[in-house]
Amino acid sequence: MKPLVIKDVSIGEGAPKTIVSVMDATTEGALATIDQGLAAGVDCFEWRVDFSENVHDPAAAAEESRVLAQALPKNPLLFTFRSTSQGGQLTIPVEEYVALNKAVIEAEAIDMVDIETWIGDAAVSDLVACAHAHGVAAVVSYHNFAGTPSKDWMVALLTHMQDLGADIPKIAVMAKTPADALELLAATEEMARLHAQGPLLTMAMGRDGSITRLAGELFGSALTFCALENASAPGQVDVSQARRIMADLHEVLGK
Ligand SMILES: O=C1C[C@@](O)(C(=O)O)C[C@@H](O)[C@@H]1O
């Protein structure tokens, strides 16, 4: 598996890299969150545009992406519109979703873009091609808040995302039992060992899934979403605690 190097961060090498969500309505608020994250040693930032006052204005969102990227000369910036069914704040028609993502990609300020699978393979491929044409890495994502599908189903989905051109295939499922966490880890391990061409991003949400957010170095998940002040999904671990635990695990694994 080849690491994905973006700015000063090598994703897929060593301990998983931390990422926190920026969930502010205004640019000033987002910049303050980024400052707070940088001070806490966060590696990557996810701008959750579904919280932004610019969400219905692609040109304003593109401009905001430039301002946020300027605050991050060394750390990757992921752009995400998260739909309601996937755990986000609102839902927009696919055409509006594609137009918003294209406007921000074409501004060439962001480093990665999150593309939700529910929009369908044709729209996913269209956005992946647009991202690659502008030097932006594609994270193709799937969320399931109802439960954890079988290992084989998750491996098939991760493989399909990769076939669609994803630089980072990503799945988040809900763990209701510790066995669900094991299922997600087994899918991640199998995908990493047999099929992955680059880094993966997988997690089980909820209290019983938290362990999957910390153990990625061994099982094959290269990035982990953490809580800065507020969590953006259930089961996220505080970023300082996650960094400590993952640094300790990295040391143990190196022995
Ligand atoms: O896709 C993800 C992962 C996530 O849902 C989590 O479970 O940590 C949090 C979201 O902000 C992010 O967009």
TrEMBL record:
Coiled coil: none annotated. The active site is at H143, K170. InterPro entries: Aldolase_TIM, DHquinase_I, Type-I_3-dehydroquinase. It catalyses: 3-dehydroquinate = 3-dehydroshikimate + H2O. GO terms for molecular function: 3-dehydroquinate dehydratase activity. Keywords: Amino-acid biosynthesis, Aromatic amino acid biosynthesis, Lyase, Schiff base. 3-dehydroquinate binds at S21, E46, W47, R48, R82, R213, S232, Q236. It holds the Pfam family DHquinase_I. Involved in the third step of the chorismate pathway, which leads to the biosynthesis of aromatic amino acids. Catalyzes the cis-dehydration of 3-dehydroquinate (DHQ) and introduces the first double bond of the aromatic ring to yield 3-dehydroshikimate. This is 3-dehydroquinate dehydratase. It comes from Slackia heliotrinireducens (strain ATCC 29202 / DSM 20476 / NCTC 11029 / RHS 1). The lineage of its organism: Bacteria, Bacillati, Actinomycetota, Coriobacteriia, Eggerthellales.
